[in-house]
């Protein structure tokens, strides 16, 4: 109800009915109470423990048998001595609660001094206690200074830069109205979401506002509706709730246990009925599933999950999930869409971005792990209707629920599903072709293979006659230049991340420049790759044998303690496997080529073993670029 209407209404009836208001001439003392005009709310002195003298001033439901307080004035400063207190409206238009010695225990501090005759404190039908000037202006209202309860129509500001910004603060115990460590209100770092804190640590978080004006709606057992809304005034957001006319008494309360509850009074059972509570008892608590994990509330029994491309970081989700494959810088424009998400916390709000610009904002940033976009057209009154959020680093406190929004997760290119599917299909086909080819070429192998290998060997012997070591595999000998470890360290700037071209199951690939200026790609086999000395030698010999203009050339190798390094020529453009697999189109081709070649060599290797086929050069040509011979 608008203040002016209230004032007019009250002006008409106040002469006969004045028990809903205090004036400077009529203070409130223990034993008496104000009752709102509709009889629903009462203001007075109380003691929650029912034993000592009244020690608090508060507002409660006047028509509900179970005493339920919705507001307390002096919650941290109770009246301690046995003598009764007094609540007065001063000539400065303030409400002041004082004890029998005249000490002020609580005051509204308006300090409004000009023209003050006729000021009154009125308990409205909504449960709002307001201090009104004679012309109807509200100087102060209890709805702007809540304790632990939100009543219908009461706004909870989300913007921390709001004059009215405040938090709900829970009672310390069932009978102790003092402020506890649990508080709830707008998140000052974003102005877009509501958080419950336990001290300074978040305990629960509502997903960032996405432009929906009605964020939840509940229907009670007798058909009434209550609706949770977000209202946007100017550039400030408020959370509030409204109820249909036929509804019973309703409230939202931050319970002393830290749980936020939505309650309705059931007159049949004479008790408060809980509609919803947050956090729910499952995995809903803040960051419960750890970084990169999310709580799936669409399951019958909500439980933690990892994003695809991630695996649990340990036996349970206490440490969240980790990437199966590192996000490669310049990994490009690859995103996986997760629908129906409670989007994570700790986002960066980028202003004035369309959805494509928002995506670009994330894809060009190496540290960007995800983005989410929403259009605020129905709410915002400012010019910027966009809500582009990006995440740099870990994704914490994510969830999945029925009304969630889209979250776009930045992923390493090689984990795109499409790609792995193509690999799954293409590799067996190639393997079959190789088998057929190999079988049909066995006789060629027998007759011509040996000669050719010898030729390669001679070629290498000529090219790298100095600084070469012989490698023996079975009864074959191939010569490859050995490059000393120090040279590789120098070439790659001590394997600096800056020079890293890519990474895979076999290890990392670095770009380097050897003395003399040759650009090389150095594959550093990871110590955990399980590639032992034999396999290493095997690969060396096979790749050396496979020298072909469509393959990346192996220039040398290096071993040092348990380091195993392969040095390839650096090809800035696509090569064989770009043709083979046709989809490594944009980034870091060289590194991936080398990794794929390793896979290719393994296939060949297996065939070699199975069929004792000495790999002839013709075979390479079959899978080389058409017309390349
Ligand atoms: C509160 O007081 C009433 C009557 O004065 C009494 O019947 C009731 O047991 C008391 N409750 C508690 C919790 O002490
Ligand atoms: C308020 O003002 C009236 C008249 O101006 C005066 O009689 C009264 O004592 C004042 N009350 C207080 C609490 O100062
Ligand atoms: C109100 O006035 C009193 C006394 O003059 C002063 O101590 C207090 O700080 C003032 N409060 C505000 C909010 O200005
Ligand atoms: C009401 O009166 C106060 C002071 O007398 C004044 O500041 C305010 O603007 C007035 N409000 C309206 C709506 O007239
Ligand atoms: C709140 O924090 C306190 C102290 O850190 C802790 O003992 C308590 O368990 C926390 N409460 C919840 C509900 O997690
Ligand atoms: C209370 O009981 C009456 C009669 O059984 C029923 O019509 C009404 O819906 C009930 N109210 C609530 C709030 O359950
Ligand atoms: C998860 O595992 C760690 C140790 O691995 C243990 O300390 C922790 O209590 C476990 N948490 C849950 C919720 O089981
Ligand atoms: C805005 O409101 C219109 C109609 O009220 C609705 O169709 C549309 O989905 C809303 N858009 C958003 C982003 O909420």
From TrEMBL:
The keyword Transmembrane helix applies. Residues 329-414 form the Apple domain. The chain crosses the membrane at residues 425-445. Its EC number is 2.7.11.1. It is a single-pass type I membrane protein. ATP binds at residue 523. PROSITE patterns: BULB_LECTIN, PAN, PROTEIN_KINASE_ATP, PROTEIN_KINASE_DOM. This is non-specific serine/threonine protein kinase. One of its GO terms (biological process) is response to other organism. InterPro entries: Bulb-type_lectin_dom (IPR001480), Bulb-type_lectin_dom_sf (IPR036426), Kinase-like_dom_sf (IPR011009), Pan_app (IPR003609), Prot_kinase_dom (IPR000719), Protein_kinase_ATP_BS (IPR017441), S_locus_glycoprot_dom (IPR000858), Ser-Thr/Tyr_kinase_cat_dom (IPR001245). Residues 19-144 form the Bulb-type lectin domain. It catalyses: L-threonyl-[protein] + ATP = O-phospho-L-threonyl-[protein] + ADP + H(+); L-seryl-[protein] + ATP = O-phospho-L-seryl-[protein] + ADP + H(+). Keywords: ATP-binding, Disulfide bond, Membrane, Nucleotide-binding, Receptor, Signal, Transmembrane, Transmembrane helix. It is found in: Membrane. Residues 495-629 form the Protein kinase domain. Residues 1-18 form the signal peptide. One of its GO terms (molecular function) is protein tyrosine kinase activity. GO terms for cellular component: membrane.
